[in-house]
Fold:
Amino acid sequence: MSVLNAKIPSGPLEQKWSYYRAHQNLVSPANKKKLDVIVVGTGLGGASAAASLGELGFRVKAFCYQDSPRRAHSIAAQGGINAAKNYQNDGDSVYRLFYDTIKGGDYRSREANVYRLAELSGPIIDQCVAQGVPFAREYGGLLENRSFGGALVSRTFYARGQTGQQLLLGAYSAMMRQVHLGTVELYTRHEMLELVVVDGRARGIIARNLVTGAIERFSAHAVVLATGGYGNVFYLSTNAMGSNATAIWRAYKKGALFANPCFTQIHPTCIPVHGEYQSKLTLMSESLRNDGRIWVPRKKEDVEKIRKKLIRARDIPEEDRDYYLERRYPAYGNLVPRDVASRAAKERCDAGFGVNETGLAVFLDLSDSIKRLGKKVIDERYGNLFQIYEKIMDENPWENPMMIYPAVHYTMGGLWVDYELQSTIPGLFVLGEANFSDHGANRLGASALMQGLADGYFILPYTIQNYLADQIKVPRISVQSDEFALAEKQTRERIERLFSVGGKTPSERLHRELGKVMWEYVGMSRTKEGLEKAIQMIRDLRENFWKDVKVTGSNDELNPELEKALRIADFLELGELMARDALHRNESCGGHFREEYQTEEGEAKRNDQDYMYVAAWKFLGDDREPELVKEDLEYEFIEVKARSYK
Amino acid sequence: MDFTLKIWRQKDAASRGRFVTYHLEGISPDCSFLEMLDILNDQLVQKGEDPVAFDHDCREGICGACSLYINGRPHGPDDAITTCQLHMRRFRDGDTIVVEPWRAKAFPVIKDLIVDRSAFDKIIQAGGYISVNTGGVPDANTIPIQKEHADIAMDAAACIGCGACVAACKNASAMLFVSAKVSHLSMLPQGKIEAARRVKAMLEEMDRLGFGNCSNTGACEAECPKQISLSHIARLNREYFKAILG
Structure:
């Protein structure tokens, strides 16, 4: 039996959400304005939640570390957002989107959550269009779609290669309207450094004003974390430089369980790593796989010539190319899910067929489509991506196929939440990438935007009321309590401790070292030995960090070095939990690939008998190992099968 | 590659700033401009000196955080990119590179190369949206939109709010930024309903915040990393006249 109760409503799958809404508690308009909600993070989840809560009449305080909420990293999502509209008449339905998402997640997500997500996908598109999101359209004036990995239908809505930007600006402007109307108070350049729990309930946060360095207290009846993923544990990832895990990690250390930390997504189509000084990796949207074919040379001698730049990709005749995704997965071809595509690229590169000097790259070739559709059409669909590629690689992708390689992109794991998106700390809700809820062991492309907006526009505004309904008699929370004082004190001590180390090494260097360990042992493929080694190495790095880190300046100023060091200190703890989780899960599923557990064909081999559960970790103290708490996954409505894209 | 950098250093808004010269050696041409600054900061931190503060985040040209004025041009010598997309191969070995913050009355310096651009958020707050609440909206395909109109709306909506237009403008006008939002929304049937109120409110707010007037020199368009066209300013003017005359 599960120890964790996900509070899934009873009844048939397709009626659970309407049943929930019909029976939940609501807060009256007069009482809403007496209730405060803190929302940390202003990406798709946070901005849509803050806007929607403000519209309902709650008093919202919204926080972001950036100078403007519009810069949250949702802005960088390129390809699109899924919705089961079936506008293409190609056989899509809510059930099919639900099914694809469960299968794509390798049967490690909750049926009820995923079904609700699929159900809400349509209304999200309606909402965005009403806000003025300029989605791509057909000549007839209706919305256009494209395909993403793991689906046999075209259900992805998009705005050129800037879908995340347009959706975020929609949510951002809705939130700014509430700022104007006075329901949302905005705190930019503020970073949450601690969660405040009073009598077992989340009641506020401690945040650092990044301009003045002031450590400030903020209280509310409920706290919502929408602070994104933790892919930057790997140092090099497609995340923004500032993306960090501090908010969720602090909540974990205050009692919220952390679920499936080892489930990370390595995205197959990123611009390859090229130098030691490199600070981040850049994604080339999965949408390119609609019109692009992925290949490496079939012959080793061609590989050698390509690497030495003696020949170009186009000089290799068709019969000497290995379109390995089409070869291995004829049904889905280039549109297999990300985990499958990434591992296949690694397999070819490990076998010595990588096409750049490092041997870690494959071709993503759009030349057939350019020939078939013309440069104008391709430019309209992907023009900005071609420009990004050319600037970084100094090579013209119109003439030579792009070179790509997998890179860390997304984290499916996150704080454990129940059906109401509430963590194990009452009053603490978690949205979007920061929670673990909907993607299982692998997320399908164009589903992160869907989840962020479903959580923020349509789920939280309901479920939070079920919690707040019995809080209406609780007066505004004072920040003068002992709990706030203690949380502030702990935060100040953490900062002082960093300055007092007085070491020699800039934190960024130590972060890079952590990233190398994570990528090597907790990355695309993992082994028992490697993970055990990683845990020790991360501990050593952590110890070294607290002996050797150098943080310049003081707390009382704008201090990016301090900001980085605080984040890295938390990454150094989280990295170990990720390795521990990966070590305990003796199976391969989705993005979690343990070399010991694979089929003869090299596919991930699940162990449903022993591991069909959510692994949620409970913090017990800095000097103790965390406790594993399980939520069993029960599939009532779909048949659990081996995941095949052949 | 070796470079001499002249970088604007300013402790905080109240302090006086000055240029400080730094020398960097052995920089790879494939290094991005911001990675070059990372290398400089790594050296400064090791020496115990205060590293150069600059805004940056996504480092792929979309968040709009990076904002350097490089050799007299916002986002540096290349067209149609942000500073984070600029690479050192674009310079010559031995070059002296001058790096400054955006300079505009409405964008006060916070520290070094970081300025306060919250004025842009305030302009959006004044009316840069369609006033719909969550829920209760019609099906997305209920209102067909001419593809050409949707495309123009998207061209305008591509603005990343970096402020290069203001930095480039001799009047420090925010006209291109404002026009991008006005144009985006007024091209769509959903946005036409509030068009008159929106354009007036946003322009009033722009003036109130201390941005200058537009004199149509086109410097903003030339420096915009997203190539937002001056034609959006023309559309804004048309919307404005419609609003005050209508």
